[in-house]
Structure formats: structure tokens, C-alpha cells
Design goal:
Helix 3 runs parallel beside helix 5 and helix 4 crosses helix 5. The N terminus is likely disordered. This protein has a single domain, classed as 3-Layer(aba) Sandwich (Rossmann fold). It is of the alpha/beta class and about 325 residues long. The strands form 2 sheets. An 8-stranded mixed β-sheet has the order 6-7-8-3-9-10-12-11, with helices on both faces. It has 10 helices and 12 strands.
Length: about 325
């Protein structure tokens, strides 16, 4: 079993991406021809039941677009997304929503300000016609207790809550119909550090209690190290490294992963500010570099890197897309 897939022989992944690509047509000006943006480019991975897979990278790397495709909010331009072995196109929208639920970055903007907490948490139950009205009330009460919300808040409105409480409401709403997978898009970045810790501890407890599977999109590597089992690193739409969290943080192989980890802010003030993620400017996604897309910013770039795109290598540590680990590149 490779760390890249983390799927045992004979085991069906709960979620799988196979060559998933998403293209957008972008016009820079009124009279200019549209360009093609490859927001997600040929991404493949599998997620086993009960694990936390984190997707990390700089802004613009494609991680949020990938998350939206996993939720069924965007169709892939190419490739296949499977749920428990079934292609997404064979799964109805209602069933996708029942299997996969989102928790977004800003809890205030994702909650209807005119609805009470009870109405917000109960909306998925009503949409999916789950239970009677009395049964829904009982489930809403149980879920609110599960995420640490006092019962008296059932009639409160989002503007009466703190940021942490709002995010608990968003989590409760996501769990109302008992999905197997929850996709988190920067769920703690809008919260204070002390509240972040509370929410992360809650997510870890809910995962154990409810046997949930998480896809955790984040740029905060300190949070990822705390919560994730495996980490997928994206750069300009490509999956450049994938492996166990401990391996990624202790022995990163892709030069981009190395520079990302060097940019983590340390709590020790004597060490000063860390360096930026990489040297050079971020490339234009509409006109990505030839060969390896990271080569203009890579401290280990070779002549080959600017001419030939590296193949993804899968081995025991995981997956890496870099000429440093490509046997054919070494032969050249």
C-alpha cells in the first residue's frame, strides 16, 4: 500500500479523484480572445474512510476550486470524481449533498441573518425531508449540544453570536443530515487564535465520535500539522506532493513544499519573521511556465526543469512531481 493512496488492497475509497481537471475561459479585455485557465490540472488522489486529508498551497493554487468540485458545486472539465466507487455523474445532486457537506471560511456570510439557529441547522433536514417536525426539533437539539451550543440559542440569530459560535452553527448545519464526508474551506482563518484551537479540538472530537472523513483546505500549515493525517500540496493547479503529515513536515521532498514549510511563523519571537514562501514573483496562471511550473522560483532548478514537465512518482513515502525524483530525468 502506498502512502499516496493510503488505500488497502480491496478497500474502496470513500472519495477519489482520477485525473480531475477544471478549465475556465478568461477574457482580459473586451476585444481580446479568451484565454484558458487550468485552475486544477490532472489531479489524482484517494481518501479512505475516517481520515483527514489536508489540501495546502498558496492563494491561486486551485485548492478551493478542487473543493467546490468535490462538493458538486462545479463540474470537472475532465477526469472523474468517485464516491465509494461510483462516478459523480451517476450520483444525484441530492445524494451528493447527503454524502458530502461543506463548512466555509466565513461563518457569518454563509449563515442566513434572517433565520434563527434552529431554522439554519434544521434546513438540511427539511430539504431532504428527514423526520417529522418533532423529530427534527429533537435532532437539532442533539446536534447543537454535540457542537457545544447552549440550547437557549436555538431562537437566536447569527448577529447575536460570536465568531466561534457562528462556526459551530455552520458545523452543526453540515452534520444535520449525517454526511460521511465534510469539506472544510479555511474553516478557522477568520477566527481568533484561541477560538481556532477550540474549533479544531471540536472537529477532532466529532471525527472520532461520528467516524467522519474530512477534506481540509487550508493555507495555515500549523493548523494542518495539528489535524491532518495526510497532506496534498498544490501549485498552479498541479498536485506536486502527497504523503503522510509526519513525513511531509519532517522530510519534505518537493522544493515548493520545503519553502512553504520554511514560511511557517514560529511562536519564538527571538527567531524573527520567517522568509517568504519562495523567491520571485508568482507566475501568471493564464500563462504558466513551460516544463515544471515551479522552476522559475525553484532554488534547485536544473536546465531540464524549464523544458520538460516532470512525471508524478509514487513510492513508499507518497507522491512527488519533481525531476529530482524521476529516474528518467536522471538518465537524461
Amino acid at each position: 500500500m502506498s502512502a499516496a493512496s493510503a488505500i488497502a488492497p480491496g478497500e474502496t475509497p470513500v472519495l477519489e479523484c482520477d485525473g480531475v481537471t477544471r478549465l475556465f475561459r478568461v477574457k482580459k479585455g473586451l476585444f481580446e480572445a479568451a484565454s484558458i485557465l487550468r485552475a486544477v490540472d490532472d489531479v489524482s488522489f484517494a481518501v479512505r474512510k475516517g481520515e483527514v486529508l489536508a489540501i495546502v498551497g498558496e492563494s491561486g493554487c486551485g485548492k478551493t476550486t478542487l473543493a467546490r468540485m468535490l462538493l458538486g458545486l462545479l463540474p470537472p472539465s475532465g477526469g472523474t470524481i468517485r464516491f465509494a466507487g461510483r462516478p459523480m455523474e451517476d450520483v444525484g445532486r441530492s445524494e451528493i449533498a447527503a454524502r458530502v457537506q461543506p463548512v466555509f471560511q466565513d461563518p457569518y456570510s454563509s449563515l442566513n441573518p434572517r433565520k434563527t439557529l434552529g431554522q439554519i441547522v434544521g434546513l438540511p433536514l427539511a430539504v431532504h425531508r428527514i423526520g417529522t417536525e418533532a423529530e427534527r426539533r429533537d435532532r437539532i437539539a442533539r446536534i447543537m449540544e454535540l457542537v457545544g451550543l447552549p440550547s437557549h440559542l436555538v431562537h437566536a440569530y447569527p448577529n447575536q453570536l460570536s465568531g466561534g459560535q457562528r462556526q459551530r452553527v455552520a458545523i452543526a448545519r453540515a452534520l444535520a443530515i449525517e454526511p460521511g464526508i465534510v469539506v472544510f474551506d479555511e474553516p478557522t482563518s477568520a477566527l481568533d487564535v484561541s477560538v481556532q484551537a477550540q474549533i479544531l479540538n471540536l472537529l477532532m472530537e466529532l471525527r472520532r465520535t461520528l467516524k467522519l472523513t474530512y477534506v481540509f483546505v487550508s493555507h495555515d500549515l500549523a493548523v494542518v500539522e495539528h489535524i491532518a493525517d495526510r497532506v496534498a500540496v498544490m501549485y498552479l493547479g498541479r498536485l506536486v506532493e502527497l504523503g503522510d503529515t509526519g513525513t511531509i513536515f519532517e522530510d519534505p521532498r518537493h522544493p515548493y513544499t520545503e519553502t512553504l514549510l520554511r514560511s511557517i511563523l514560529t511562536p519564538d519571537p527571538s527567531l524573527g519573521l520567517p522568509p517568504g514562501p519562495t523567491g520571485g514573483e508568482f507566475p501568471d496562471p493564464l500563462d504558466p511556465p513551460s516544463g515544471c511550473r515551479f522552476h522559475p522560483r525553484c532554488p534547485k532548478a536544473m536546465d531540464l526543469c524549464g523544458a520538460v514537465a516532470p512525471e508524478a512518482e509514487t513510492d513508499s513515502p507518497g507522491l512527488v512531481e519533481c525531476h529530482l525524483y524521476n529516474e528518467e530525468s536522471h538518465d537524461r
